[in-house]
Design goal:
This is D-xylose 1-dehydrogenase (NADP(+), D-xylono-1,5-lactone-forming). GO terms for molecular function: D-xylose 1-dehydrogenase (NADP+) activity; nucleotide binding. Its EC number is 1.1.1.179. InterPro entries: Gfo/Idh/MocA-like_OxRdtase_N, Gfo/Idh/MocA_domain, GFO_IDH_MocA-like_dom, NAD(P)-bd_dom_sf. The protein is of the alpha/beta class and about 375 residues long. The chain is about 30% helix and about 25% strand. The chain contains ten helices and 14 strands. The strands form two sheets. It has an eight-stranded mixed β-sheet. Helix 4 runs parallel beside helix 5. The protein is globular, with a radius of gyration of 20 Å. It binds NADPH dihydro-nicotinamide-adenine-dinucleotide phosphate and the ligand O=C1OC[C@@H](O)[C@H](O)[C@H]1O. NADPH dihydro-nicotinamide-adenine-dinucleotide phosphate (NDP) binds next to helix 1.
């Protein structure tokens, strides 16, 4: 504690895109977003490519924060640092499972980027290990931590503003294949592919609206239909194959609701096609980008009125999940309410089913689960 505030000390694995974005958000003053109870400190950063990369990453952050950030040339070294309470893993999906195990074995709490692991069995292992150690672990599916999500859950499920929810349609598509054909997002050996990279967001919206529907009392798991288009991509002379377009249809038969969810790495989401939730009394839409929602539009059929509900986000919005980690750890919780272990497991099981139907298994040992 410092001046009554809870201080959470972060270690960061990786120096790539997400590690950089997350760290930049972490050093923003929490007070700017109305968060006055907690403080984030970055204690250390580690690069798997040597200490120089970690040192220049730390130097760039220190300019913003004047904090003392210790650089490490390997992830294992960072785990011995007592100045780290929690590790953020901003590394490829293929690397999540074994690195989370190392973090938990070293007694560190964990916030890990999406997709949490390659498959649900690996996720089960991580949660069992975290529970046995009494450590907090959370999936950094950042969308679920935005304050607007709390309001949307309330509008849909408590106020029932749409009445009964009938259908969700959602797309997230980005044109990596055309613009950056060698980007790691399509590299199967790193856990790439449309479903785990971008398709997870439309699935998130469907599960939020339908699986979480209080009328889904039996926690019915939906029937799943899939269209998956595979594509080859070259990385350092090696060819890998991953899903380039994945379409998912979900049927909640007891709930009498459906979802049509599409994702692609060959083209961009067309304007207005991000998220549409339709009910008997109205509809709710999320404008681009649905992974970092800052507003929603609510239309009520009886009046024909559409109202826009806006939320200011002072930064990128990656800090919300960090704030939740801090509050949860302060309050000795082992999982966040915003993205429970059940929500992560259900998502991983759903993505497993989608890949099984699309006949897509990740190569080599990526799907393996260690003994536990
Ligand atoms: N929440 C979101 O909006 C987004 C989340 N993601 C997720 O974040 C994770 C990281 O993605 P992103 O930051 O875009 O990826 P980058 O390729 O930009 O960075 C990944 C970093 O991981 C480290 N790394 C460790 N092992 C490897 C390896 N075998 N090959 C390559 N890099 C490795 C490297 O850092 P170093 O060598 O320094 O250790 C590298 O810079 C993924 O799981 C992805 O799904 C991605 C984009 C957006
Ligand atoms: O997780 C993600 O969300 C945002 C996108 O820009 C990114 O490419 C994707 O992987």
């Amino acid at each position: 504690m410092s001046s009554g505030k809870f201080v959470l000390k972060w270690g960061i694995f990786g120096t790539g895109n997400m590690a950089t974005q997350f760290a930049k958000d972490l050093v923003l003053p929490p007070g700017d977003r109305g968060e006055h109870e907690i403080v984030h400190r970055i204690g250390a950063v580690a690069s798997s490519r040597g200490i120089n990369r970690a040192a220049s990453f730390a130097q760039n952050l220190q300019k913003a924060d004047e904090a003392e950030i210790t650089p490490y040339g390997s992830y294992t070294e960072l785990l011995d640092d007592a100045n780290v309470d929690i590790v953020y893993l901003g590394i490829p999906t293929s690397e999540h499972y074994e690195n989370m195990i190392s973090c938990l074995e070293a007694g560190k709490h964990v916030l890990c980027e999406k997709a949490f692991t390659i498959n649900a069995r690996q996720t089960e292992h991580i949660f069992a290990l975290a529970r046995s150690k009494g450590l907090f672990v959370a999936e950094a599916r950042w969308t679920l931590y935005f304050p607007i999500i709390k309001e949307i859950r309330h509008v849909l499920h408590t106020k029932r503003a749409l009445g009964k929810i009938h259908r969700v349609t959602s797309d997230l598509s980005l044109d990596f294949a055309a613009k950056m054909p060698h980007h790691s997002i399509r590299n199967a050996t790193l856990g790439g592919g449309a479903l785990l990279a971008v398709g997870i967001y439309p699935l998130t919206w469907a599960m939020l609206a339908l699986y979480e529907d209080p009328e889904n009392t039996s926690k019915e798991f939906p029937e799943v239909e899939v269209g998956m288009l595979m594509a080859k991509a070259q990385y350092d002379g090696d060819e890998t194959v991953s899903d380039e377009q994945t379409n998912v249809s979900l049927t909640f038969r007891e709930l009498r609701a459906t979802a049509v969810l599409t994702s692609s790495l060959t083209m961009r989401t067309p304007k207005g096609c991000t998220v549409l939730i339709q009910g008997e009394k109205g509809s709710l839409t999320i404008p681009w980008a649905s992974y970092c929602p800052s507003s929603y539009d609510l239309t009520i059929y009886s009046t024909g009125a559409t109202t826009e509900h806006k939320f200011d986000i002072p930064g990128k919005g990656l800090f919300y999940q960090a704030d939740v980690c801090a509050r949860s750890i302060r309050d000795r919780k082992l999982e966040p309410e915003e993205c429970t272990h059940e929500a992560t497991l259900v998502m991983m099981r759903l993505m497993d089913q989608v890949r099984e139907k699309g006949k897509f298994r990740y190569p080599g040992k990526l799907e393996d689960v260690l003994d536990y």
